[in-house]
Each structure stands twice: as structure tokens, then as C-alpha cells.
Write a structure and sequence with these properties.
2 domains, 6 helices, elongated, Flavodoxin, menaquinone-dependent protoporphyrinogen oxidase activity, FMN binding
Length: 179
Amino acid sequence: MKPILILVKSKYGASRRYAGWLAAITACDLAETKDFNPRNFDRYETIVLMGGVYAGTVAGVDFLKKHRARLQGKTIAVFAVGASPADAEGLNLMQSRLKASLPEAVLFYGRGCYDEQRMNFADRTLCRMLKKSLLKKDPAALEPWARAMLESEKQGACDWCDPDALKPLCSALKIEINK
């Protein structure tokens, strides 16, 4: 069997942490999308993309989409990392967006981090503006991601990364987890 490739597109580090954990479990190759030469896709049978969620889209999917011809016949898994707790409606929307770009890809999810102090100016400003608009709404009517964002305001920096979130992905790829 050809090895597994883990590709990472991580802005603030949570996706990179999950990728590191998966690489340690599987002893497979790990590369950042920005450093990976797409000609090397032929070395792998399975591609796992680990990317952050931004506005419902997984970072790095565009990279795979751009090189889709090289991915024919391969197993493709996308592990999305977001600050929100997993909720069925949000995951279904993310899955439908993924299927529109990469119909053969399967989506998995792990919760990441939220720390405005580590964000760049633009991201921090957008998050603060979003929070202000959410505070004007009825809390009972907020979606799970919006409630989580407002809860993070009270907690400061939040880190929800959990290696157990990799279990469904490992199970689907038939990877045994040795703790």
C-alpha cells in the first residue's frame, strides 16, 4: 500500500496540531500545502487535508481542487478545524460546499482554538464586529457557532483541540490508534 499524505493549511496552528497528532499515529508523510509539489501526489494512495474553517469553507480545499486531475482514484479526506462546536446543520452545509468542489472527498471535523490576541488585525477586527452584531440578537435564536463565539468573549483564549476528534477519520481510513 502506498503511504498516506497529510496536507496542512493552518493559519493559527490548530490544524497543524491535529496534523502532527495524525502523523504521529500513522507515521505518514506531512506537508504544508504551500510547500508541497503537486507532482508528488502520485506517490500516495490517500490524501488527508487538515485545514481551518473560515466562513464555512475549509482552507486548502482550493489547492486540492486546483490539482484535482492528479487526485483521480485516490481516497481524499478533509479534516476541518473550526472554533465552533460541531453541529449537524453547519457540518451539512460544509459537506455540501466540499462536495461541490471535490465530490469524492469525505469530511471530518475537530474543534480548534479561538484567541483574538493571536489573530492578525483584519481577522481580529472582523471577529469583534461580528460579536457586536451578535450581541444585538436574541441569544435563544443564535446558531451554535454564534453562541460559541460569544462564550469565548467571557473565557478569553480558548483551546478545544482534542486528539480524540481524529478517531472517526482514523476509523474511516482503517488506521489503528495506539495510545
